Amino acid sequence: MLEKKWPLSGSEKLSFGLGIGYLYNSGEKYSGSLKEEGIDNHQLILRPNFKC
Fold first, then answer.
1. Contact, 49 vs 18, CB < 8 A?
2. How many other C-beta atoms lie within 10 A of the C-beta of residue 41?
3. Beta bridge partners of 50
4. For the chain, which residues make up each domain, given as ranges?
5. Which residues pair with residue 48 across a beta bridge?
6. Is 24 helix (H, G, I), strand (E, B) or coil?
7. What is the CA radius of gyration of the chain?
8. What is the pLDDT of residues 1-52, one digit of tens each?
9. Which bin fits 32, alpha (ψ -120 to 50), beta or left (φ > 0)?
């Protein structure tokens, strides 16, 4: 996860942040009957944030 913060004009304590990240889950997490064959999960994460 990478995050960048920008101060909001007119306020010394308030800032806006934007985070971006990538999450990968492979289907190799479980074995036996719980195993999900051939399922790979890719997720792009965007996280806006206001901070005081």
1. yes
2. 11
3. 16
4. 2-51
5. 18
6. strand
7. 18
8. 999 999 998 888 899 999 999 998 876 767 777 776 667 788 999 999 998 8
9. left
